[in-house]
Write a structure and sequence with these properties.
Elements: H1 2-21, H2 26-54, H3 67-70
Helix pairs in contact: 1-2
């Protein structure tokens, strides 16, 4: 899970660095938006797994939540 998060975050950083120097193409903007959602889903799944483990539940029962769910969390 952390490997996936690190890989996605690295690509997000690449696109953001590109964005600092020039406008992103439509394809790059779409990829960046997708990366943001996928990262939020990964972090959410990791938090779910950790919480389940902490409270004596099976972390393997955690499930990836829909993009609309993880994108609308309040911080």
């Amino acid at each position: 899970m952390l490997g996936t998060i690190n890989r996605l975050a690295a690509r997000e950083e690449e696109l953001r660095a590109t964005e600092a120097g020039r406008r992103l193409t439509a394809e790059e903007r779409a990829e960046l938006a997708d990366l943001e959602v996928r990262l939020d889903q990964c972090w959410d799944l990791l938090r779910q797994r950790r919480a389940r483990r902490e409270f004596g539940r099976d972390p393997d029962t955690a499930e990836t939540r829909a993009p609309g769910t993880v994108e609308n969390y309040r911080q």
